[in-house]
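Interim report to the steering committee. The following record documents the input for GroES-like protein (344 residues).
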Amino acid sequence: MPVFKALSITEHHQKTPLTLLDFEEPQLEDGEILVENVAVAQNPIDWKQVDYDFGIKSLPWVVGGDIAGKVYKVGPGVSQFKVGDRVISFPSRKTTRHAAYQTYSVTEAVRTVKLPESYTFEEGSTIPLTYTTAGAGLVHALKVTLPTADGNIPLNARNEPLLVWGGSSSVGSYAIQLANLAGYDVITTASKANHDYVKSLGAKHVFDYRDANVVEEIRKAAGNNLSLVYDTVSTPATVKQSVESITSPTGGSIATILPSADSSLSTDTVKIVSTGSIKAFEHPEIGRALYALLAVLLEKKILKTNPVKVIDGGLNGVNEGFELGRQGKVSAEKFVYRIADTKF
Ligand SMILES: NC(=O)c1ccc[n+]([C@@H]2O[C@H](COP(=O)([O-])OP(=O)(O)OC[C@H]3O[C@@H](n4cnc5c(N)ncnc54)[C@H](OP(=O)(O)O)[C@@H]3O)[C@@H](O)[C@H]2O)c1
């Protein structure tokens, strides 16, 4: 018998641990599938939603935007998936059932791709939300041309730099790989301990963001040609550093991904452009192209997933993972929860 249990938020600004509650098997709308989750992954927005009380439309509520599992049921109008397919998906979080931290999630077929056997469910769960964010930011905010699913991968070298600020973050790791596949020479920043990691993702130059000369070093490596920056950290300090890193005499664009990012630092020539995963769905052609490309990158085993850190206890471990997230203890890794480790 399937177990329908969800790790639930039961009050606004909840300070006490989230608890597992039962739910009924959900009905599927047009274009939806029900996924039996095997592994779900943590993103900063999950604990931020609890702490800052946003996007919680009713109680009890469920958060989480990364799932990997097997298709359990297929809704009306879905022909590209069948029961039993291994998939990863980025549920929309529009209802309690369209979220990750539960045993079965409803998600849309257009936000889902098949996961080849060459990736584990745990690895696969690290991809959907931040890959989508990385791709949407490159395409929408920075106007980067990515490879297409049916074209050459990678695209020809452009001999142009692109800076990813925060290359060891989850968004940064996918931004480096996509920019590299688009033919850019990627410059990035990370802690020293993560320099080999970001190079393994395709970064050509990496600098320690704690180094006082970091902007100077970036400018030197970039020559006079840096016009594109993806700031995956987007604090006031990193936005300022991103602006200062632009070397192109004609200016350029900086993609930022937090609503709090300060766009007043824009100048006549340097534009700060707010982006986020939502751009992939506000502009469905961007989302379609990104997911078609993702399917090919997975089939060909080109995409490197984030290093996985499995947190003990499955869904029971999420409260601990959120605490570590709040304390900033995530470095070049993704916290992953195995549903089978949960005690119901
Ligand atoms: N708008 C959207 O749709 C959207 C989507 C996804 C994420 N986000 C937001 O984007 C941010 C990144 O998300 P994520 O999941 O990628 O985060 P993450 O993986 O949890 O980020 C952790 C990483 O950030 C790096 N970092 C921290 N401060 C840095 C700095 N000053 N300079 C360079 N790197 C720094 C750390 O690098 P080291 O360990 O190497 O020091 C660490 O590896 C979060 O604030 C998240 O809420 C927004």
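The two ends are 13 Å apart (CA to CA). The committee is asked to note this result when reviewing the revised timeline.
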